[in-house]
Amino acid sequence: MTATTETLERETKLQGIGSSRLRKEDARFIRGKGTYVDDIKLPGMLFGAIVRSPYAHARIKSINKAKALAVPGVVAVLTADDLKPVKLDWMPTLGGDVQAVLADRKVCFQMQEVAMVIARDRYCAADGMDAVEVEYEELPAIVDPHKALAPDAPIIREDIAGKDEVGHGKRTHPNHIFTWQAGDKDGTDAAFANAAVTVREEILNPRVHPCPLETCGCVASFDKVTGQLTVYITSQAPHLVRTVVAMLSGIPESKIRIISGDIGGGFGNKVPVYPGYVIAIVASIVTGVPIKWIESRIENISTTGFARDYHCVGELAAGKDGRIKALRFTALADHGAFNSHVSATKLPAGLFSICTGSYDVPKAYCRVDAVYTNKAPGGVAYRCSLRVTEAVYLIERMIDVLAQKVGVDKAEIRARNFIKADKFPYTTSLGWTIDSGNYHAALDKVLKAVDYAGLRKEQADKRAKGELMGIGISTFTEIVGAGPTKVCDILGIGLFDSCDIRVNPTGSAIARLGTMSQGQGHATTYAQIIATELGLSSDEIQIEEGDTDKAPYGAGTWGSRSTPVGGAAAAMAARKIRAKAQKIAAHLLEVGEGDLEWEVDRFKVKGNPAQAKTMKEIAMAAHTSNLPPGMEQGLDGTEYYDPPNLTYPFGAYVCVVDIDRLTGETKVRRFYALDDCGTRINPMIIEGQIHGGLTEAFAVAFGQAIPFDENGNHLGNSFLDYFLPTAVETPHWETDRTVTPSPHHPIGAKGVAESPHVGGIPCFSNAVVDAFAHLGVTHMDMPHTAFRVWQECKALGINTR
Amino acid sequence: MVKKQPVSFKLNGTDVDVLVEPRELLIHTLRERLQHTGPHIGCETSHCGACTVDLNGMSVKSCTVLTVQCRDAEVLTVEGLEQGGTLHALQEGFTQAHGLQCGFCTPGMITRAYRLLKENPSPSEEEIRYWMAGNLCRCTGYQNIVKAVQYAANKMSLARTGT
Amino acid sequence: MIPREFEYHAPKSIPDALGLLQQFGDEAKLLAGGHSLLPMMKLRFAQPGHLIDLGGIGELKGIREANGTLRIGAMTTENEIIWSKLLQDKCPLLVEGARLIADPQVRYKGTIGGDLSHGDPGNDHPALMLVLGASFVLKSSSGERVVPSDGFFLGSYTTLLQPGEIMTEIRIPVPAPNTGYSYSKLKRKVGDYATAAAAVTLRMKGESVQDVAIALTNVGARVLKARAAEDSLRGKTMNDAAIAEAARLAMSICDPAADQRGDAEYKVAMAGEMTQRALRTARSRAGR
């Protein structure tokens, strides 16, 4: 056996970076032995159910608890008055605002929390809910964000009426939250004035909801004797929750334990701190027993973190050849009644300014005006990486609009505008330094794979016969891995992340991180990173997240941060261990450190390879007396990683659709997705993330919306209407890749889970619009339901046989 | 107050006895009284299928069945699929094909697939998608779930032919 | 998620069920498959004090043929319909229709009798029954009557079923061999109600239509029989113009409610398009 074969065998055995190894966490899930929050049962536990407002905007005249308290099994009914003595009727949000925990005198969105019934079990709690009597006086509601800043608009937030800012600069109107802008406004305006070609579209990114299959919930347990608060919770950010709860409750943070166990999907829905959690915590403090709160699906869709609701105007200025000269994007952001979504202090509109995309745009300006409306709070959620879905949707739609205006092919126009491969790291005109990219190669590979020229020919033939066929392209760059603490913080806490590794004497290890999986496979992928760094089998590396008593501080998992930040922390912590291990190996082999080289799982003496010490041997030695003088025992490494930059995964997607002009139905014939996330840790898991993100993108593009009537009443907030595709509607996905590592990341990885969603949505939308492009259509808003597409067909006079 | 009724049935081969109000849903009896938290609750409108169990040879959504309707029934949940330390081919298939991510839909999916393969031991991809359309998933996009079911169908077919 | 409390009864015979119905009057609801009623009760839109479960009554099950008539027990599930060799052979329209209802788990419990008795204009069986010329056996403590399906459905959640009556059997004359058929259902996804659907049965004599039946789902307060459309086709050749005219006449009787599936204009247009597709498909399946 040659040295190389033997090395390869050892490497394969590790199942480290690059291995499509099966997942370690599956064992419990396939047996139904996961521990989700509703599986938790504690002695004496009571159940809380929330009474909610039927009105979008109303004064509360009275709340009568008597009948509810008389229902057998009901123990207590909490209202705002019960929270006031502990100053918890209002709470700070992760967005710098305050939010009502239980409504006091006024409700601001339909289904806002008004009271919580605590009962022996969920059956009694449901009966109790029915019996709480609330008297309301209805007020006019603002549902259309365009009306929020009218001079005579009803004031939604009387509680902050006197405040001229809520965390993000001056407010110009009681319903105004903030205005944020970036770029060179004057230079951009000048470029538009001088441009040969300009295009403008009004583009809606409708309000949708991430809808993980498990809803939000918690079990809060306060121990009166020890003063310890334990909360089992569906949280993607357990440490942030612990800090916020400490700030709210006055309980020292060291006596608060937040435990996220298994989470049934997050997609950003499980980042904010919801009133339900806070009321359950208060109820537990008051009653001294554990309180469980689990929201229903209708509550989930109606009240927890929605996504998007961005009303945009996109403008591009270009030459006749389609070469972009300037970009001007503005958005009216409907945040609902409270600014509750996670928001970096300096970036209240998230990472929206990534909207120059994969293109070399000399001048750019973007501006977001955020307003309150009488709808549920939220905005940043749903695999969006902090408004990146909104930004990328805009640029990828607009470049198609530009292509149609100048008569340049939609793939060609992208190639003309791409940042060239030799220009990285590339700083955009809006200030982001894209770490690496190779956009031309990605697009070329995809166009070849789908026979793009053949598809355009087929499209021409079909158009001649009056058939609608669309080809959608999306060449996105997105930005993930928030982020450098100088730029990215939540309530002041920097968005670093952490990893704490301990190697035990027999050579296996346990690593704890500040991130939090909700299905992404961290127990497997982090083990793979550490396996490669330490030369130990990933089978023997246990990964723990989610218990704040054990895990080092981190900001959690949202915005694809885990690989870029947590993964980096894992690699760096492992490297600290390896550095110590090298010293121990040198001591054991009686050579200098510099005489050693690392090979897969051992240190070998240069020129004398038979002299080697494996990491396993070193692990045992680290716990003995046989150590270099002055060295402590143990083989641990801890890293708090403050990323030097975010990472910029990219991709090229092509979608082919056939539209039935008689019914408006769209059939996705083919979807080809090429992703570049840098170093690929587990290709099988990456592929799974792509499938999932594309399926969610498909749902957004073709059917999801949270509709309201003019009084702010929900028109479709259950699975009867909210579109979650089944296996029948969901298309088949083809995946491909290029690999362009991130130069600043310890293992060159960028993260990938949000890319398919960010890149997929505009790809579908572009395909649908492209199907009508020959008839002069430049834009159609989502969702592209059969009804809406048919309306377009009708407007064009092509909806009948 | 409505009187509770005694209900006896078999759960994964074991006799169980519960005392329930008529309005108690089977999903709650399984999860709260009988400590079988494999089947999950994902909605309240009988759409998502996370609560799917096998009841008297039928795939049913246990959130839409009253426990009092289950007298003398045979109920199978995902917890009952592993026999004598050996995983069912479907459990193996879901791992091999990466047919799960967060795991929340998985018990319902596997339990439904179990009955599907009894209805139709050799389903095509199209048939798998159609006959699994009562189970929603948000993580996987279904493609690997189809592969998982195909893996199991294949393995079970080989076992039947003794190859 | 949790229904209000109620008393539960599981009669073993039809007379026992009828007795309970009489005893509890409008405080009672019949429980068939439960997949329309229980979801309504879980959201507390329905709050009956008594549930009478028909699931234990053997007499209400079974699919058989007798004297040229298919007789289907009211508690026959959609799944039993789909897998019935007799129906696949003798009445494939019913199998096609059942396959388009809900999803596999719901079909294991949902019953044809429940679907028909509920009176929900969104349910699919009424249209199938109308074009198959079915009739229903309704039993009460004072006896039994057989009513034609045409005329049974009166409006939203209203049928000819009287208080104290239970539908026990569905009778369908075995369609003649070479009967063309189709149930064309437009829906947003599997499990959704129809945006619009059309059921068609068709018999040809040479190139002309000997007889045709057309019924529409979910485009009015109840199922709609498109009589003018039918009349326009009888004796005619089924060319594009005739089919288009029939669709136009079918559309003219529609009065759908706007909802998240679409506005009235769209739904009416889709009723027309589904009628066209059902007619074309039925034509391709009809013999000479």
Word description of this protein:
The complex is a heterotrimer of chains A (801), B (163) and C (288). Chain A is α+β, with helices and mostly antiparallel strands and 801 residues long. Chain A is built from 19 helices and 34 strands. In chain A, the strands form ten sheets. Chain A has a seven-stranded mixed beta sheet, sandwiched between helices. With 163 residues, chain B is α+β, with helices and mostly antiparallel strands. Chain B has two domains: 5-80, Beta-grasp domain (Ubiquitin-like (UB roll)), CATH 3.10.20.30; 89-161, DNA polymerase, domain 1, CATH 1.10.150.120. In chain B, β3 (52-55) and β4 (58-61) form a beta hairpin. In chain B, α2 (89-96) packs across α5 (143-161). Chain C has three domains: 7-51, Uridine Diphospho-n-acetylenolpyruvylglucosamine Reductase, domain 2, CATH 3.30.43; 63-173, Uridine Diphospho-n-acetylenolpyruvylglucosamine Reductase, domain 3, CATH 3.30.465; 194-285, CO dehydrogenase flavoprotein, C-terminal domain (Enolase-like, domain 1, 2-Layer Sandwich), CATH 3.30.390. In chain C, α9 (227-233) runs antiparallel to α10 and α10 crosses α11 (264-285). In chain C, 57% of the residues are buried. The mean pLDDT of chain C is 97. With 288 residues, chain C is an alpha+beta fold. The termini of chain C are far apart. In chain C, the strands form four sheets. In chain C, strands 4-5-10-6-7 form a five-stranded antiparallel beta sheet. In chain C, strands 11-12-13-14 form a four-stranded antiparallel beta sheet. Chain C has helices at residues 14-24, 37-42, 78-83, 85-90, 92-99, 104-109, 112-118, 125-132, 227-233, 240-252, 264-285; strands at residues 7-9, 28-31, 50-53, 63-66, 69-73, 135-140, 143-148, 153-155, 158-159, 166-173, 180-186, 196-205, 208-217, 224-225. The radius of gyration of chain C is 19 Å and the shape is globular. Classes of the chains: A alpha+beta (801), B alpha+beta (163), C alpha+beta (288). Chains in contact: A-B, A-C, B-C. The interface between A and B is large, with 58 and 58 residues.
Q: Could you say which overall geometry of chain C the principal axes of the C-alpha atoms support?
A: globular
Q: How would you state the average pLDDT of chain B, rounded?
A: 97
Helix content of chain B: 25-40%
- Radius of gyration of chain C equals 19 Å
Q: By CATH's scheme, which homologous superfamily of the largest domain in chain B applies?
A: Beta-grasp domain
Q: Numbering strands along the chain, what is their spatial order in the largest sheet of chain C?
A: 4-5-10-6-7
How many domains comprise the coordinates of chain C? 3
Low-confidence parts of chain B, pLDDT < 50 over ≥5 residues?
none
Helices and strands of chain B: which structural class? alpha+beta
- Major sheet summary line of chain C: 5 strands, antiparallel
Shape of chain B: globular
Structural class of chain C, please? Answer: alpha+beta
| Helix content bin of chain C | 25-40%
Assembly status: heterotrimer
- In what range is the share of β-strand residues of chain C? 25-35%
